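Researcher: I'm comparing several assemblies side by side, and this is the next one on my list. It has 770 residues spread over two chains. Same procedure as the others: predict the full complex and return the structure.
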Amino acid sequence: MEGPVQVSTSVDLLYSETEDQLRAAVRDVLTDHCTAAAVLDRIESDEPHDRELWKTLAAEMGLAGLLVPEKLGGQGATHREAAVVLEELGRAVAPVPYLSSAVVATELLLGCPAERPQVAAQIGELASGRLVGALAVPFATAPHAPYARVRRSADGLLHGTVTAVADAAAADLLYVATDDALYALSADQDGVTVTPRTSLDLTRPLADITLDGARGGEPVSEDPDTAVRRALRAGAALLASEQLGLADWCLTETVAYTRDRHQFNRAVGSFQALKHRLAELWLETVNARAAARNAADALATASPEIPLAAALAQAYCAPVAVHAAEEALQLHGGIGMTWEHPVHLYLKRAKADAIGYGSAGRHREALAELMDLRAP
Amino acid sequence: MTLDDSQLQGRTREFLAAHPPASTPRADFLAARFDAGLAWVHYPEGLGGLGLPRAQQAVVDAELEAAGAPDNDPRRIGIGLGMAAPTVLAYGTEEQKRRWLRPLWLGEEVWCQLFSEPGAGSDLAALGTRAVRDGDTWVVNGQKVWTSNAHNARWAILIARTDPDQPKHRGITYFVCDMTDPGVEVRPLRQITGEAEFNEVFLSDVRIPDAHRLGEVGEGWRVAQTTLMNERVAIGGMRLPREGGMIGPVVTAWRERPELRTHDLHQELLKLWVETEVARLTGERLRQQLVAGHPGPEGSGMKLGFARLNQRVSGLELELLGEDGLLYEDWTMTRPDIVDFTGRDAGYRYLRAKGNSIEGGTSEVLLNIVAERVLGLPSEPRTDKDVAWKDLSR
C-alpha cells in the first residue's frame, strides 16, 4: 500500500547565494552586538529583551518584514530567508522577539482578511519592526492542539488569563482568540495586565496575560482557527531552524574546546570516547539541516506538505538541539556548569524550544495521523 | 568538451535515432553507447565519456530511460563500476584504461575486490598478502576474504605487501589480478543469513605481470583510498522514495494488520519513521549539493546513518510480526549474484542488516573518520605508524 501523501520532488534543500549573504550580514551584526557576555548581563536585568538589537535587525535591516509582501510594507521575501535569520539568532541565543513577532504574529495577521484596514496597518507596523506582536497562547501550544481562548462577556468586554506566552512582555500588540473571533489588544490598554514569569529560558521570557474587561474593538478576524493554526504551524516549522542554529553553535564550540583542552598530556578531543560522541552530533546536525530546510521550503512554496514538513522538522530537530546542548555541557566539563560560561543559555533555550509549539512527541502524534500510522 | 544540457540531450537523441533500442541487439546498443561517449559522460572521450561534469549524466540517463534503452545491469557489475573503474581511471596507464574500462562497463568482464584479509579488517593497511618481484612479474601468496562476485569475476583489484621492511602504509602496491590464474582458488563464505554472498580467495604463487600494476610500487595505499571512498558513496548513496527501503514493509504491516500494534512499538515506529524520512531528505540534500557542484562532507555520514536505521527498523519489524517473526524463509546455501537488502523476508532483512555497520568500513572507524577529517579532531596517539610492517604485533 502506498502512503497517503505523495512525495514532492521539487523541494530545494540548499541555501541560495542571497541566503548566504543574508546569513553573513546577520552574523556580522550578532558578532558585534550580541556577544555571550552581553546576553548574560542582560538576562537578569529589568529589560531582558534587547531593544537596540531588535531595532537594528528588525527596522534597519528590514528583517521583521521578510514574510510580508512589499505592498503591505514588507520585504516580500520568503520563509527560506526567515529560516536563515532564525539559524543565526539561534547560534547567538539572541534575546529578540523575532520568532514571536516577525513569524508567528505576522503569519497570524497574514491569515486574517487583508481587506480590513486594521489588519493591513498592523502587518505594516510589525513588518517595520516599530511594533512587536505576540499571539496570546501558551508557548507550549502545538499547531494541531487545542489553544487558549478568552471569553467575551455580554457587554462586549474580554475576560480571561493566558499563561506562559513567549515574548509577551516585549509586545506592543497582543492577539487573543475567543470562540468566534480574533482581537488585537494594545499591551498598555485598560483591562490588560502582562505579568512576567520567571522562565527557564531567560532569553525568550514568558509572561501571563490577564484580561479583566478589556475592550476588544473590531476583531481582526472572525475565523480564529485558520489564523491561529497557520501561525503556530509556521512557528513550529521555523523553530526548527533556530534549533539547528543552537545545535550548530554547540557542536562548533565543543569541537573547538576539546581540541584545545588538554588532560592526560593530550587534547581531550583525541580520545575516541569523545570523538565518537561529537561525530554522532555532527550526523544529527547534518540531518537536522535537511529537515529544517525542508520545512522552510515547504512554507515558502505553500506546499500541501506543510503540516507534514513542520511536524517532521519538530519531531527531529527539537531533540537534536537538546542533545547538542547536553553534550556541549558534559564535554566542557566543570566550566560548562558555571554561570559564566554561555553553554547553559543554549541548554535552557534548547530545552524550552523542545516544549515550544509542541514537544517532539506531540509532533509524532500529528505524523501518525498524517501518515495513517495509527495507535493501537 | 563543454555541452550544455540541451546540447547533450540533442546528442543523446541523435544517438538514439541512429541506434533504436527496439531494433538494436542489447550488446550492440551498449557498445555503441560506450563508443559515443554516453556511458559515463564524466569519463574522458574515447573511454566511454565526453569529459563533462558528472552531474550531466542525469540528462543522458533520462533520455535513455524515456526511450526504453537497455542498461548494463549495473547491480551485477557494481564493484567494477563503483570501485575498479574510478581507480583505473585515476591511476591507470593509457594502455590499461583502454584494455579494461570498455569491457568493464559493457559487463563483458566482471570485477571483484581483493582487499580484506582474515588478519586485516578495520586495520586494512596491516595486510599480509605478499607480492614478490620476479623479473617482469610479481608472485603473490596470501588469503583474501569477503570477496563478492569472486566466483564470477574475470579481474580483481588487489592490494598486496611488496616491502615488509617499510611501515605498513608505505609497503603496499596495487595490482589488477587475473582471476583465471591457476593459483587463484575461490571458496564460498557462508554467512549468518544462510547464503554465501561472499567468498574467501586463496592466492598461491599467482603470477601478475608488472604491466598490471596500478600506480607506483609502494603507493598502493594511496591508490586504494580512491577505491574505498567510492565504495562508501555507493553503499550510503541509494536514492529512495518516501517509505522506500527497510521502513516500507513495516509501515505496510502496521497499516494492514492492526492486531499486531502495541503502544511501545507505535512509539518506536514513529521515531524510526521520522529518522528514515529525515535520512532520505539528507540524501536528497547531498545529491542537490553534488549537482550544484558543491559536494559537502555530508556523504561521510550517510553510510553510518543507513546502517543504524536498517538495523533498528528490521529489528522492529521482526518484533512487530510476532509469530511470523519466529519463522525464516529459507536457510539453504545459495549464491546470489545481486544483493538486495530488502528483497527477502523480515528475518533475512534483520540478519543481513547486521553487516551494514561492518562492510565498507565499520561504523566505529567511520566515526573516527568523521571526527578527524570533517571535525578536525586530533587522532589517537599511534604506535604503528613508523614501525616496519614486519615488526608489528599480530
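Model: For your comparison table: Chain B touches chain A through 48 residues (CB under 8 Å).
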